[in-house]
C-alpha cells in the first residue's frame, strides 16, 4: 500500500514539474479587421470574418484550425470554423479569414433586441475564438469593441 502511495506521489510531483517546464507565453493580440460577404443559402447569411492575429512571443505559434463565435449587442449572432493551418512566426502577425454563418433566427433575435431609438451605429460586439494547436498548444482569444453596420450614418464595419 505504501508503495502505491509513493508511486502516485512521484507521478504527481513529476506532472507538476512538467508544467513548470512549459514556456510562459504572452496572450495573442486579436483584432477584427473586416467582414466580407460570402454566398448564402436559403435562410442563412454567410460572411468571412477577417482577424489580425499578432504573436508577441519569441517562439512561433503553430495552428491547425480556427473557431469563432460572434455576439452583437449581447446576443449570439454568428459562428464559424475553418480547417486552415499554418504558423505565426515569432514577433509577427497574420490576417486569417474565417467563414461564419448567421441563421435567420439570429437575425430575428437581433432585430427584436434593438430598441426603437437604437441605431445601427456603435453596436457592441464580442468575438471569442481559438486557434487549435494540439493538447497544450490551443490558444483561446477574445476581442470586443463597437461596430457600425452598413447603411448607418457613421462609419462602416
Notes on the structure:
- This protein is of the alpha+beta class and 157 residues long.
- It has a single domain, classed as Immunoglobulin-like.
- It is 19% helix and 46% strand.
- It is built from two helices and nine strands; from the N terminus they run αβββββββαββ.
- Strand 8 and strand 9 form a beta hairpin.
- It is elongated, with a radius of gyration of 21 Å.
Write the layout of secondary structure elements.
Elements: H1 2-21, E1 29-38, E2 44-55, E3 61-63, E4 66-72, E5 75-82, E6 86-88, E7 92-103, H2 104-113, E8 123-131, E9 139-147
Antiparallel strand pairs: 1-2, 2-7, 3-6, 4-5, 4-8, 8-9
Give a quick rundown of the structure.
With 157 residues, the chain is α+β, with helices and mostly antiparallel strands.
Amino acid at each position: 500500500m505504501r508503495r502505491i502511495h509513493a508511486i502516485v506521489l512521484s507521478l504527481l510531483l513529476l506532472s507538476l514539474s512538467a508544467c513548470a517546464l512549459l514556456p510562459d507565453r504572452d496572450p495573442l493580440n486579436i483584432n477584427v479587421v473586416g467582414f466580407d460577404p460570402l454566398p448564402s443559402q436559403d435562410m442563412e447569411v454567410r460572411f468571412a470574418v477577417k482577424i489580425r492575429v499578432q504573436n508577441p512571443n519569441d517562439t512561433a505559434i503553430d495552428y491547425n484550425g480556427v473557431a469563432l463565435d460572434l455576439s452583437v449587442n449581447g446576443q449570439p449572432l454568428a459562428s464559424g470554423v475553418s480547417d486552415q493551418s499554418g504558423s505565426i512566426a515569432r514577433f509577427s502577425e497574420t490576417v486569417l479569414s474565417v467563414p461564419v454563418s448567421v441563421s435567420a433566427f439570429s437575425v430575428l433575435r437581433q432585430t427584436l433586441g434593438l430598441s426603437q431609438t437604437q441605431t445601427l451605429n456603435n453596436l457592441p460586439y464580442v468575438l471569442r475564438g481559438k486557434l487549435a494547436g494540439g493538447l497544450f498548444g490551443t490558444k483561446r482569444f477574445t476581442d470586443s469593441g463597437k461596430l457600425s453596420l452598413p447603411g448607418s450614418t457613421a462609419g462602416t464595419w
